[in-house]
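Figure 3 (text version): structure tokens given as input.
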């Protein structure tokens, strides 16, 4: 099934409410096998792959209900992997977002709490910048790696940096310092950490 969480923290199952006329950015991952996020009316089709965190975006123009399907055969329940995309007038969406039973803390705030709980700041606090690179303003920018190559700090780079720190070593820093968090954080928690690091870029005025 499809499950969603909005930046405000509100969750929903098999339904996705979005505002008309605004860019909606999706951060997609899978718990099991490859799926494909497919909304024929928006001509939007995007693979959803376990072990990857992919982004896609769309802007719906007209309020209404649109079918979301999985376009990648994923098992015996593939045909039931459906959901509705409910496009609302922006003010109605804002109202909807504020309702609902305990939406929980916004994603970035929950991610910040997790960041502190896992003590990432022991190395990443800004004043310690000699131990580990500061994460402010990182998202959406190119990162120079120790081997001289460059990689874009997108969702998937952040995910990889947390699960396999030695996959890409940042220039001027040492490998083997950051422990891996594979097995310590699940997919939902990774999304929260990534949302938090993304919010650190927003704070600097960089649009993700
Ligand atoms: C023991 C110190 C240490 C801890 C704890 C640590 N890191 Fe790191 N981290 C590093 C170092 C050193 C690097 C740079 C070397 C590398 O790329 O592996 C790094 C790199 C990163 C990068 C890539 C940064 C860039 O500029 O491209 C991200 C993202 C990151 N860490 C996130 C985290 C998160 C999230 C946590 C907690 C779950 C965490 N780190 C915990 C030391 C640490
Ligand atoms: Cu499927």
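Below: residues designed for each position.
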């Amino acid at each position: 099934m499809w499950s969603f969480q909005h930046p405000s923290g509100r969750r929903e199952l098999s339904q996705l409410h979005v505002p008309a006329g605004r860019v909606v950015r999706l951060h997609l991952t899978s718990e099991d096998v490859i799926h494909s996020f497919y909304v024929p009316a928006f001509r939007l089709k995007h693979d959803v792959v376990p072990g990857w965190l992919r982004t896609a975006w769309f802007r719906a123009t007209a309020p209404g209900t649109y079918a979301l399907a999985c376009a990648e055969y994923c098992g015996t329940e593939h045909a039931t992997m459906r959901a509705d995309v409910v496009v609302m007038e922006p003010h109605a969406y804002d109202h909807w977002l504020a309702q609902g039973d305990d939406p929980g803390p916004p994603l970035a705030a929950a991610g910040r709490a997790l960041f502190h709980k896992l003590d990432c700041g022991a190395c990443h606090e800004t004043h310690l910048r000699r131990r580990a690179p500061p994460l402010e303003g990182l998202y959406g920018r190119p990162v120079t790696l120790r081997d001289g190559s460059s990689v874009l700090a997108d969702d998937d780079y952040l995910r990889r940096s947390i699960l396999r720190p030695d996959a890409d070593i940042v220039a001027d820093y040492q490998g083997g310092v950051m422990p891996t968090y594979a097995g310590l954080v699940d997919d939902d928690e990774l999304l929260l950490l990534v949302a938090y690091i993304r919010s650190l870029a927003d704070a600097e005025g960089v649009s993700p």
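Helices lie at 90-98, 107-117, 121-124, 155-163, 187-203.
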